[in-house]
Amino acid sequence: MLAIDAKYKVLVPLATSIRAPKRLLHIVLIAAISVSYQASSALEEFSDPLAAINRPVYSFNKAVDAIFLKPIAVLYRNVTPRFLKNAISNLFSNLDEVQVVANDLLQLDFAQAGRDGGRFAINSTLGVGGLFDVANEWFGIHKHNEGFGRTLAHWGVAPGPYLVLPVVGPSTLRESGDAFFEFLVDPLRDQDAALEDRSRSVSAIDSRASYLILDDLVSGDEYLFVRTMYMQLIEYRDSDQAVSNNLTDF
Question: Residue ranges of the domains in the chain?
Answer without folding.
Answer: 3-247
